[in-house]
Amino acid sequence: MELVVFAITAIVAIVGAVAMLLSKNAIHSALFLLLNLGAIAVLYLLLRAPFLFAVQLIVYAGAIIVLFLFVVMLLGAERAEDEQDRIVWQRPLALLMGLLLLGEAAYVFFTRGGGPVPVTAQVNEDFAAPVRISEVLFSTYLLPFEITSVVLLAAIVGVVVLNKQEHREER
Amino acid sequence: MVPTSYFILLSATLFTLGVLGVLVRRNALVVFMSIELMLNAANLALVAFAQARQSLGGQIIVFFVITVAAAEVAVGLALLVAIFRTKRTTDIDEISTLRG
Predict the structure, then answer these.
(1) pLDDT (tens digit per residue) in A118-142
(2) Is A91 on the interface with B (CB under 8 A)?
(3) Which of A86, A116, B87, B100 has CA atoms 20 to 30 A from the CA of A45?
(4) Hey, what CATH class is A1-82 in?
(5) pLDDT tens digits along B17-27
């Protein structure tokens, strides 16, 4: 039963990713990415990570996609890329290298990685409940948690600084 | 219980699709979205291993990666808007000189 859910969600995720790459319109790409992020959130739920399921939907699907959509609409960037590439062989070479990367990953997966992952014998359904996450996050990982708040502050300051405009000419 | 290797294979596929997006597309915003797709693929692999080993460390890493990715998207988009103000285009082939 879980395998069926996994198969459907995986197909939705891959279809979303491929559609995001092939869309001519950047707004359609953002919406397909939203579909993909929703599918990944469901996969987190399958992997017994309810807290990450909620965080993924709130932060990624809720905030980041909305930010992308704002910027796409602000810049009017939804137009297609009509002109030719500057380097004509760029796209075929990129497709070839991407397929090589996928081939390499599949090769490693089927020859070395196909064996069983070392799994701990006792599977606890509740091991990543939000209570457990908070116990670990605020004790063992308190320092990275505080540093993350500094990172976010730096990002806010950076965004404000990058958007400052010189007003001297207008006066 | 779904085998962990299935999740890893899915993660590798999504990562490769993200790499393709960065290499093939010219709209800077779609390039950013492909980078986010790559980050999500890596997060999926981390959570899969965290579940296999019943270890919370993997999920905590993903929590921080999501946070840092949000900060990175904010700064990256601010950069793009700043570039757009002068260049009036989001086509990365046009932004080929270091002049602003």
Answers:
(1) 666 666 777 888 898 999 999 999 9
(2) yes
(3) A116
(4) mainly alpha
(5) 999 999 888 88
Q: What is the pTM of this model?
A: 0.89
Of the partner residues A44, A101, A159, the one whose CB lies closest to the CB of residue B16:
A101
Every domain of chain B and the residues it spans: 4-87
Q: Which residue from A33, A71, A86 is facing B93, i.e. has the nearest CB? A: A86
Annotate B45-87 with DSSP letters as a single string: HHHHHHHHTT-SHHHHHHHHHHHHHHHHHHHHHHHHHHHHHHH
Q: What is the mean pLDDT of residues A141-149?
A: 94
Q: Does A95 touch chain B (CB under 8 A)?
A: yes
Chain B residues with CB-CB distance to A83 below 8 A: 91, 93
Count Cα atoms within 13 angstroms, Cβ side, for A31: 7
With beta carbons under 8 A apart, name residues in chain A contacting B16: 98, 101-102, 105
Instruction: State the smallest CA–CA distance between residue A168 and chain B in angstroms.
Output: 16
CA distances from A67 to A27, A39, B79 (A): 12, 20, 13
Cβ neighbours of residue A80 closer than 8 Å, sequence gap 6 or more: A24, A25
ipTM of the complex: 0.91
The first and second tokens of residue B70, run together, are 């949000």
